[in-house]
Amino acid sequence: MANYSIFALARNALQRHQRWPQAWRSPQPRPSYDAVIVGGGGHGLATAYYLAKVHGMRDIAVLEKGWIGGGNTGRNTTIVRSNYLYPESAAIYDHALKLWEGLSQELNFNVMFSPRGVINLAHDPGEERELRRRIYANQLAGVDAEWVGPSQLAELCPILNLDQNIRYPVVGGTLQRRAGVARHDAVAWGYARGADSLGVDIIQNCEVTGFDIQDGRIEGVKTSLGDIRTAKVGVVAAGHSSVLAAMAGIRLPLDSHPLQALVSEPVKPVMPTVIMSNKVHAYMSQSDKGELVIGAGIDPYNSYAQRGSMPVIEETIRAVVELFPITSRLKMMRQWAGIVDICPDASPIISATPVDGLYFNCGWGTGGFKATPGSGHLFAHTLAKGEAHPINAPFALERFYSGALVAEHGAAAVAH
Fold it and tell me: What domains are defined for the chain?
């Protein structure tokens, strides 16, 4: 059997995998659907999956202007955690983390979730007070969190520089042991395959160019492949949500920024956990291929460019080399940027809109990937029931004129 498998792999490789079955269908759009999801990233595909699986809605289309997972889903650093400060945020991110923990079994597809722990460093007494405050808030909300001192940090991550004479010496940090990383492509592929198996049409290279709105109600979407009639539309378009909202005459409180990341050449395992530092605006983990995955905060300007800028990368590398001196001679293999939508309170929007039947899921800023399963699960409920789930109710558009903001800048300050 082993030899047969080797020969089968070799045969398929020589045939350039042309006879391998597709993981999901590539249908042409039909004239109408019960619901349309705009955006074929992780959140959009998860929404379609849970609409079909949990709520029994099978007449659904997912419209993606490019290819599945080609947007922010494939342009992030794959960190998963739920240690946010406010109870509303802790609830929504921990809902997602609980789904992450069983997602490979749920989808029968290995999303490579690795709960290796996430550490947020403190570099001075003031930062330590803020992080300890977050620990206590997490514990009150039922989210695992603990304080680790320098000696524990040395055990958890031996390559971390704990010299007290560096520019920003490390005084300790928070640890969420259930947190970790997952494989971004696998999440999109798993949800796409799962949704397709339930009858969802996944339509790639189909750009939404407008909405058909009659008497304040959604009647359909206009696309590059023709018009589609539907009574429910869920928009999950990451960095371009405000552009799509404008097509419907809605102005969302969003700013779009590039968020940069890079990977080193592959090395043997040296980074057993994830380390993040708000003070120096850098974080690092290691992929299963051996690459060190490095990220920073957002670029300070508004842009839809996915190339990023070298000054941000230079400052990030400067910080990483100080925190992890063994990285100083590594080569950078590639660098990229994703476009993130950021709300004034650094929390997402999962909400109905003034247009009846039109819903938006956006504004995740730098925390979108970690929320993927929870976001899709809750947004599916909101679309199917026409009302918010209790967990995502605090993230409605109404908060921007009621004043009930969920200000998470501290917990989201260093991206992901």
Answer: 114-180+255-341 (3.30.9.10)
